[in-house]
UniProtKB/TrEMBL annotation:
Its cofactor is Fe cation. Belongs to the homogentisate dioxygenase family. InterPro entries: HgmA_C (IPR046451), Homogentis_dOase (IPR005708), RmlC-like_jellyroll (IPR014710), RmlC_Cupin_sf (IPR011051). Residues 275-373 form the Homogentisate 1,2-dioxygenase C-terminal domain. This is Homogentisate 1,2-dioxygenase. Signal peptide: none annotated.
Length: 387
Protein backbone atom coordinates (compact mmCIF):
# COMPACT_ATOMS: atom_id res chain seq x y z
CA UNK A 1 0.00 0.00 0.00
CA UNK A 2 1.17 3.54 -0.66
CA UNK A 3 0.69 4.88 2.86
CA UNK A 4 0.98 4.06 6.54
CA UNK A 5 -1.96 3.43 8.89
CA UNK A 6 -2.22 2.85 12.62
CA UNK A 7 -5.31 1.29 14.23
CA UNK A 8 -5.95 0.39 17.88
CA UNK A 9 -3.23 0.00 20.50
CA UNK A 10 0.43 -0.37 19.55
CA UNK A 11 3.59 0.23 21.62
CA UNK A 12 5.86 3.24 20.96
CA UNK A 13 8.66 1.03 19.60
CA UNK A 14 8.25 -2.08 17.44
CA UNK A 15 9.58 -5.47 18.62
CA UNK A 16 9.61 -4.35 22.25
CA UNK A 17 7.65 -5.52 25.30
CA UNK A 18 3.94 -4.75 25.03
CA UNK A 19 2.01 -6.17 27.97
CA UNK A 20 -1.62 -7.04 28.54
CA UNK A 21 -3.46 -5.91 31.72
CA UNK A 22 -2.57 -9.22 33.41
CA UNK A 23 1.14 -8.66 32.72
CA UNK A 24 1.50 -11.21 29.93
CA UNK A 25 2.95 -10.14 26.60
CA UNK A 26 0.83 -9.46 23.52
CA UNK A 27 1.96 -11.68 20.66
CA UNK A 28 3.48 -9.84 17.71
CA UNK A 29 2.72 -10.94 14.15
CA UNK A 30 4.65 -9.35 11.29
CA UNK A 31 2.94 -9.79 7.92
CA UNK A 32 5.38 -8.90 5.16
CA UNK A 33 5.68 -9.31 1.40
CA UNK A 34 8.69 -10.42 -0.64
CA UNK A 35 10.64 -11.93 2.22
CA UNK A 36 10.06 -8.88 4.45
CA UNK A 37 11.72 -6.66 1.85
CA UNK A 38 8.49 -4.89 0.84
CA UNK A 39 5.27 -3.66 2.48
CA UNK A 40 4.42 -5.06 5.89
CA UNK A 41 2.25 -4.56 8.96
CA UNK A 42 2.77 -5.46 12.60
CA UNK A 43 -0.22 -6.88 14.49
CA UNK A 44 -0.59 -7.45 18.25
CA UNK A 45 -2.65 -10.48 19.32
CA UNK A 46 -4.05 -11.40 22.70
CA UNK A 47 -3.18 -15.03 21.92
CA UNK A 48 -0.49 -16.75 19.87
CA UNK A 49 -1.43 -16.53 16.14
CA UNK A 50 0.62 -19.73 15.62
CA UNK A 51 -1.56 -21.91 17.88
CA UNK A 52 -3.45 -24.43 15.76
CA UNK A 53 -4.86 -27.69 17.16
CA UNK A 54 -5.73 -29.43 13.89
CA UNK A 55 -4.94 -29.35 10.16
CA UNK A 56 -6.84 -31.52 7.68
CA UNK A 57 -7.19 -31.43 3.88
CA UNK A 58 -10.28 -29.61 2.62
CA UNK A 59 -12.01 -30.21 -0.69
CA UNK A 60 -13.61 -27.03 -2.10
CA UNK A 61 -16.29 -27.23 -4.80
CA UNK A 62 -14.75 -28.91 -7.83
CA UNK A 63 -14.05 -26.93 -11.00
CA UNK A 64 -12.18 -27.43 -14.25
CA UNK A 65 -11.12 -25.37 -17.24
CA UNK A 66 -10.78 -25.90 -20.98
CA UNK A 67 -9.07 -23.80 -23.67
CA UNK A 68 -11.05 -21.18 -25.60
CA UNK A 69 -11.25 -23.46 -28.59
CA UNK A 70 -12.39 -22.85 -31.21
CA UNK A 71 -11.02 -19.36 -30.65
CA UNK A 72 -13.89 -16.89 -30.60
CA UNK A 73 -15.33 -14.02 -28.55
CA UNK A 74 -17.62 -15.10 -25.73
CA UNK A 75 -20.57 -13.54 -23.92
CA UNK A 76 -21.34 -14.85 -20.43
CA UNK A 77 -24.71 -14.02 -18.86
CA UNK A 78 -24.28 -14.00 -15.09
CA UNK A 79 -28.04 -13.55 -14.63
CA UNK A 80 -28.39 -17.22 -15.59
CA UNK A 81 -26.37 -18.42 -12.59
CA UNK A 82 -28.63 -20.27 -10.18
CA UNK A 83 -29.57 -18.21 -7.14
CA UNK A 84 -29.05 -20.86 -4.43
CA UNK A 85 -28.14 -19.81 -0.91
CA UNK A 86 -24.39 -19.54 -0.84
CA UNK A 87 -21.44 -17.59 0.52
CA UNK A 88 -18.89 -15.30 -1.15
CA UNK A 89 -15.97 -17.75 -0.92
CA UNK A 90 -17.16 -21.32 -1.51
CA UNK A 91 -20.06 -20.15 -3.68
CA UNK A 92 -17.89 -18.51 -6.34
CA UNK A 93 -18.70 -19.60 -9.87
CA UNK A 94 -15.32 -19.74 -11.60
CA UNK A 95 -15.68 -18.44 -15.15
CA UNK A 96 -12.26 -17.66 -16.65
CA UNK A 97 -8.75 -18.61 -15.55
CA UNK A 98 -5.11 -18.94 -16.49
CA UNK A 99 -1.97 -19.52 -14.45
CA UNK A 100 -1.90 -15.85 -13.30
CA UNK A 101 -5.51 -15.04 -12.42
CA UNK A 102 -8.96 -16.52 -11.90
CA UNK A 103 -12.17 -14.53 -12.49
CA UNK A 104 -15.34 -15.61 -10.69
CA UNK A 105 -18.83 -14.34 -9.97
CA UNK A 106 -21.07 -14.96 -6.98
CA UNK A 107 -24.40 -13.79 -5.59
CA UNK A 108 -23.89 -14.39 -1.88
CA UNK A 109 -26.62 -14.60 0.73
CA UNK A 110 -24.78 -16.21 3.67
CA UNK A 111 -21.69 -15.31 5.72
CA UNK A 112 -18.56 -16.96 4.38
CA UNK A 113 -16.30 -19.16 6.48
CA UNK A 114 -13.13 -17.64 7.85
CA UNK A 115 -10.73 -17.83 4.92
CA UNK A 116 -7.22 -16.94 3.89
CA UNK A 117 -5.89 -17.03 0.34
CA UNK A 118 -2.21 -17.95 0.61
CA UNK A 119 -1.77 -18.02 -3.18
CA UNK A 120 -2.12 -14.30 -3.92
CA UNK A 121 -4.09 -11.10 -3.45
CA UNK A 122 -7.79 -10.86 -4.23
CA UNK A 123 -9.70 -7.97 -5.78
CA UNK A 124 -13.44 -8.01 -5.12
CA UNK A 125 -15.84 -5.73 -6.97
CA UNK A 126 -19.32 -5.17 -5.50
CA UNK A 127 -21.77 -4.83 -8.38
CA UNK A 128 -24.90 -4.79 -6.19
CA UNK A 129 -25.75 -4.93 -2.49
CA UNK A 130 -23.50 -4.45 0.50
CA UNK A 131 -21.11 -6.66 2.42
CA UNK A 132 -18.96 -6.40 5.56
CA UNK A 133 -15.36 -7.52 5.21
CA UNK A 134 -14.17 -8.67 8.64
CA UNK A 135 -10.50 -9.46 9.09
CA UNK A 136 -7.65 -9.55 11.59
CA UNK A 137 -7.24 -5.84 10.74
CA UNK A 138 -10.83 -4.86 11.62
CA UNK A 139 -14.02 -4.09 9.72
CA UNK A 140 -14.31 -2.69 6.21
CA UNK A 141 -17.79 -1.86 4.93
CA UNK A 142 -18.32 -2.33 1.19
CA UNK A 143 -21.21 -1.25 -0.99
CA UNK A 144 -22.16 -1.02 -4.67
CA UNK A 145 -19.23 0.15 -6.78
CA UNK A 146 -16.53 -0.67 -4.23
CA UNK A 147 -13.35 -2.50 -5.05
CA UNK A 148 -11.68 -4.29 -2.13
CA UNK A 149 -8.05 -5.40 -2.28
CA UNK A 150 -7.34 -8.22 0.18
CA UNK A 151 -3.62 -8.96 0.56
CA UNK A 152 -2.28 -12.49 0.46
CA UNK A 153 -2.90 -14.58 3.61
CA UNK A 154 -5.14 -12.11 5.46
CA UNK A 155 -7.70 -14.11 7.46
CA UNK A 156 -11.13 -12.68 6.70
CA UNK A 157 -14.77 -13.41 6.11
CA UNK A 158 -17.49 -11.73 4.03
CA UNK A 159 -20.91 -11.06 5.57
CA UNK A 160 -23.73 -9.83 3.28
CA UNK A 161 -25.82 -6.97 4.66
CA UNK A 162 -29.57 -6.49 4.15
CA UNK A 163 -29.91 -9.07 1.39
CA UNK A 164 -27.81 -10.69 -1.34
CA UNK A 165 -24.56 -9.15 -2.56
CA UNK A 166 -23.23 -9.62 -6.10
CA UNK A 167 -19.45 -9.84 -6.41
CA UNK A 168 -16.88 -10.15 -9.16
CA UNK A 169 -13.84 -11.90 -7.67
CA UNK A 170 -10.38 -11.57 -9.25
CA UNK A 171 -7.86 -13.91 -7.62
CA UNK A 172 -4.19 -13.33 -8.44
CA UNK A 173 -1.13 -15.52 -8.04
CA UNK A 174 0.80 -12.49 -6.74
CA UNK A 175 0.11 -8.97 -5.56
CA UNK A 176 -2.44 -6.40 -6.79
CA UNK A 177 -1.94 -2.66 -6.37
CA UNK A 178 -2.09 0.74 -8.04
CA UNK A 179 -0.19 1.00 -11.33
CA UNK A 180 3.44 1.90 -10.71
CA UNK A 181 3.23 4.84 -13.09
CA UNK A 182 0.72 6.48 -10.69
CA UNK A 183 3.16 6.39 -7.77
CA UNK A 184 6.29 8.25 -6.76
CA UNK A 185 9.45 6.32 -5.90
CA UNK A 186 8.31 6.49 -2.26
CA UNK A 187 4.77 5.26 -2.99
CA UNK A 188 2.76 8.51 -2.99
CA UNK A 189 0.08 8.97 -5.65
CA UNK A 190 1.24 11.45 -8.29
CA UNK A 191 -0.78 14.37 -9.62
CA UNK A 192 -1.68 12.65 -12.89
CA UNK A 193 -3.19 9.62 -11.14
CA UNK A 194 -7.00 9.26 -11.52
CA UNK A 195 -7.38 8.63 -7.78
CA UNK A 196 -5.35 9.23 -4.63
CA UNK A 197 -4.97 8.41 -0.95
CA UNK A 198 -8.04 10.47 -0.01
CA UNK A 199 -10.18 8.06 -2.01
CA UNK A 200 -8.98 4.94 -0.16
CA UNK A 201 -10.52 3.40 2.95
CA UNK A 202 -8.91 1.03 5.42
CA UNK A 203 -10.31 -1.10 8.26
CA UNK A 204 -11.76 0.54 11.35
CA UNK A 205 -11.11 -0.38 14.97
CA UNK A 206 -10.14 -3.99 15.84
CA UNK A 207 -12.91 -6.57 16.22
CA UNK A 208 -11.51 -8.20 19.41
CA UNK A 209 -13.43 -11.46 18.97
CA UNK A 210 -13.10 -14.29 21.46
CA UNK A 211 -13.58 -17.99 20.80
CA UNK A 212 -11.92 -21.37 20.81
CA UNK A 213 -11.30 -24.07 18.18
CA UNK A 214 -12.01 -21.75 15.27
CA UNK A 215 -12.04 -23.12 11.70
CA UNK A 216 -10.12 -21.24 9.00
CA UNK A 217 -10.04 -22.45 5.39
CA UNK A 218 -6.70 -21.87 3.67
CA UNK A 219 -6.30 -21.87 -0.09
CA UNK A 220 -2.61 -22.50 -0.76
CA UNK A 221 -0.32 -23.48 -3.61
CA UNK A 222 -0.92 -27.19 -3.18
CA UNK A 223 -4.67 -27.18 -2.57
CA UNK A 224 -6.84 -26.33 0.44
CA UNK A 225 -6.47 -27.07 4.17
CA UNK A 226 -8.75 -26.50 7.13
CA UNK A 227 -6.86 -25.20 10.18
CA UNK A 228 -8.46 -25.21 13.60
CA UNK A 229 -7.07 -22.33 15.64
CA UNK A 230 -6.89 -22.60 19.40
CA UNK A 231 -8.20 -19.02 19.71
CA UNK A 232 -10.13 -16.69 17.45
CA UNK A 233 -7.72 -14.99 15.01
CA UNK A 234 -9.68 -11.71 15.27
CA UNK A 235 -8.11 -11.05 18.69
CA UNK A 236 -5.87 -8.21 17.47
CA UNK A 237 -5.81 -5.15 19.76
CA UNK A 238 -3.88 -2.95 17.33
CA UNK A 239 -1.69 -2.86 14.25
CA UNK A 240 0.29 -0.48 12.12
CA UNK A 241 2.00 -0.55 8.73
CA UNK A 242 1.34 -0.40 5.01
CA UNK A 243 -0.19 -3.85 4.37
CA UNK A 244 -3.92 -4.28 5.01
CA UNK A 245 -7.24 -4.74 3.20
CA UNK A 246 -8.44 -1.54 1.58
CA UNK A 247 -11.34 -0.26 -0.49
CA UNK A 248 -11.77 2.16 -3.37
CA UNK A 249 -15.04 3.13 -5.04
CA UNK A 250 -15.26 3.06 -8.82
CA UNK A 251 -17.38 6.22 -8.44
CA UNK A 252 -14.25 8.05 -7.22
CA UNK A 253 -12.25 7.19 -10.34
CA UNK A 254 -11.61 10.42 -12.26
CA UNK A 255 -11.77 9.67 -16.00
CA UNK A 256 -9.08 10.95 -18.36
CA UNK A 257 -10.50 12.24 -21.63
CA UNK A 258 -9.14 13.91 -24.77
CA UNK A 259 -10.01 15.47 -28.12
CA UNK A 260 -9.97 12.05 -29.77
CA UNK A 261 -10.68 8.57 -28.41
CA UNK A 262 -8.38 7.57 -25.55
CA UNK A 263 -7.00 4.01 -25.34
CA UNK A 264 -7.81 1.63 -22.45
CA UNK A 265 -4.62 2.36 -20.41
CA UNK A 266 -6.16 5.71 -19.35
CA UNK A 267 -8.80 3.65 -17.49
CA UNK A 268 -6.29 1.48 -15.64
CA UNK A 269 -7.03 1.19 -11.92
CA UNK A 270 -4.86 -1.69 -10.64
CA UNK A 271 -2.15 -4.02 -11.86
CA UNK A 272 -1.36 -7.60 -10.95
CA UNK A 273 1.01 -10.31 -12.19
CA UNK A 274 0.48 -10.43 -15.97
CA UNK A 275 -2.88 -8.62 -15.86
CA UNK A 276 -4.40 -5.19 -15.34
CA UNK A 277 -7.81 -4.00 -14.07
CA UNK A 278 -9.49 -0.94 -15.61
CA UNK A 279 -12.60 1.10 -14.73
CA UNK A 280 -14.91 2.55 -17.37
CA UNK A 281 -17.03 5.25 -15.72
CA UNK A 282 -19.52 7.94 -16.84
CA UNK A 283 -17.56 10.69 -18.57
CA UNK A 284 -17.50 13.37 -21.21
CA UNK A 285 -16.16 12.01 -24.45
CA UNK A 286 -14.01 13.19 -27.33
CA UNK A 287 -14.38 16.84 -28.31
CA UNK A 288 -12.54 17.07 -31.62
CA UNK A 289 -15.12 18.35 -34.18
CA UNK A 290 -14.70 15.15 -36.22
CA UNK A 291 -14.31 12.77 -33.28
CA UNK A 292 -15.79 9.27 -33.20
CA UNK A 293 -16.40 8.63 -29.49
CA UNK A 294 -16.78 4.83 -29.52
CA UNK A 295 -13.65 2.63 -29.66
CA UNK A 296 -12.04 1.91 -32.99
CA UNK A 297 -11.72 -1.72 -34.07
CA UNK A 298 -8.74 -3.09 -32.21
CA UNK A 299 -6.71 -6.23 -31.79
CA UNK A 300 -4.79 -6.62 -28.57
CA UNK A 301 -2.13 -8.96 -29.90
CA UNK A 302 -0.66 -9.65 -26.43
CA UNK A 303 -3.77 -9.94 -24.26
CA UNK A 304 -7.24 -11.32 -23.68
CA UNK A 305 -9.79 -8.64 -22.78
CA UNK A 306 -12.60 -9.28 -20.28
CA UNK A 307 -15.34 -6.69 -19.65
CA UNK A 308 -17.89 -6.93 -16.85
CA UNK A 309 -20.80 -4.58 -17.60
CA UNK A 310 -22.10 -3.37 -14.27
CA UNK A 311 -24.12 -0.20 -14.95
CA UNK A 312 -25.35 2.40 -17.42
CA UNK A 313 -25.45 1.91 -21.18
CA UNK A 314 -22.47 0.57 -23.03
CA UNK A 315 -22.99 2.31 -26.38
CA UNK A 316 -20.39 0.35 -28.36
CA UNK A 317 -22.12 -2.95 -27.56
CA UNK A 318 -25.71 -1.97 -28.39
CA UNK A 319 -27.36 -4.67 -30.48
CA UNK A 320 -25.05 -7.47 -29.32
CA UNK A 321 -27.18 -8.81 -26.46
CA UNK A 322 -24.83 -7.35 -23.85
CA UNK A 323 -26.69 -6.12 -20.75
CA UNK A 324 -25.91 -5.31 -17.13
CA UNK A 325 -24.30 -8.32 -15.54
CA UNK A 326 -22.83 -9.53 -18.83
CA UNK A 327 -19.19 -10.57 -19.14
CA UNK A 328 -17.51 -10.49 -22.54
CA UNK A 329 -14.25 -12.17 -23.51
CA UNK A 330 -12.42 -10.82 -26.57
CA UNK A 331 -9.32 -13.00 -26.97
CA UNK A 332 -5.99 -12.35 -28.57
CA UNK A 333 -6.18 -13.54 -32.14
CA UNK A 334 -9.55 -11.84 -32.73
CA UNK A 335 -10.14 -8.26 -33.88
CA UNK A 336 -13.07 -6.71 -32.04
CA UNK A 337 -14.75 -3.33 -31.91
CA UNK A 338 -18.07 -1.53 -31.82
CA UNK A 339 -21.21 -3.28 -32.98
CA UNK A 340 -22.60 -2.45 -36.45
CA UNK A 341 -24.23 0.99 -36.37
CA UNK A 342 -22.50 2.13 -33.18
CA UNK A 343 -19.93 4.33 -34.95
CA UNK A 344 -22.53 6.46 -36.75
CA UNK A 345 -24.80 6.65 -33.71
CA UNK A 346 -21.93 7.91 -31.53
CA UNK A 347 -20.96 10.89 -33.72
CA UNK A 348 -21.90 14.09 -31.91
CA UNK A 349 -22.47 12.39 -28.54
CA UNK A 350 -20.96 14.43 -25.71
CA UNK A 351 -21.01 11.97 -22.81
CA UNK A 352 -21.23 8.23 -22.09
CA UNK A 353 -23.17 6.85 -19.13
CA UNK A 354 -21.44 3.50 -18.70
CA UNK A 355 -19.94 1.53 -15.86
CA UNK A 356 -17.72 -1.49 -16.47
CA UNK A 357 -14.75 -3.33 -15.00
CA UNK A 358 -12.15 -4.62 -17.45
CA UNK A 359 -9.48 -7.27 -16.87
CA UNK A 360 -6.76 -7.59 -19.51
CA UNK A 361 -4.59 -10.69 -19.15
CA UNK A 362 -1.29 -11.21 -20.92
CA UNK A 363 -1.70 -14.96 -21.15
CA UNK A 364 -4.76 -16.62 -22.73
CA UNK A 365 -7.76 -17.33 -20.55
CA UNK A 366 -9.40 -20.74 -20.34
CA UNK A 367 -13.13 -21.27 -19.89
CA UNK A 368 -14.39 -22.86 -16.68
CA UNK A 369 -17.44 -25.13 -16.58
CA UNK A 370 -19.88 -22.53 -15.19
CA UNK A 371 -18.93 -20.17 -18.06
CA UNK A 372 -19.93 -22.72 -20.67
CA UNK A 373 -23.29 -23.16 -18.92
CA UNK A 374 -24.19 -19.45 -19.16
CA UNK A 375 -22.72 -18.60 -22.57
CA UNK A 376 -24.70 -16.72 -25.21
CA UNK A 377 -23.50 -18.89 -28.08
CA UNK A 378 -24.64 -16.45 -30.77
CA UNK A 379 -22.47 -13.55 -29.60
CA UNK A 380 -19.51 -14.25 -31.87
CA UNK A 381 -21.61 -13.68 -35.00
CA UNK A 382 -23.21 -10.35 -33.94
CA UNK A 383 -20.70 -8.25 -35.92
CA UNK A 384 -22.01 -9.91 -39.09
CA UNK A 385 -25.49 -8.45 -38.57
CA UNK A 386 -26.51 -5.20 -40.18
CA UNK A 387 -26.78 -2.22 -37.82
Amino acid sequence: MPYYRRVGEVPPKRHTQFRQPDGSLFAEELMGQEGFSSDSSLLYHRHRPTAIVSAVPFDPPAWSRVPNRPLKPRHLQTGKIAGDKTDAVLGRQHLLANDDVRISYVEATEPSPLYRNAVGDECLYVSAGAVTLESTFGVLELTEGDYAIIPTSVIHRLVPKDGPVKLLAIEATGHIGPPRRYLSVRGQFLEHAPYCERDLRGPSAPILAEGYDISVLVQHRRGWTEHIYANHPFDVVGWDGCLYPWAFSIHDFEPITGRVHQPPPVHQTFEGPNFVICSFVPRKVDYHPLAIPVPYNHHNVDSDEVLFYTGGNYEARRGSGIEQGSISLHPSGFTHGPQPGAVERAIGVEAFDELAVMVDTFRPLDLCEPALAIEDTGYAWTWSRKG
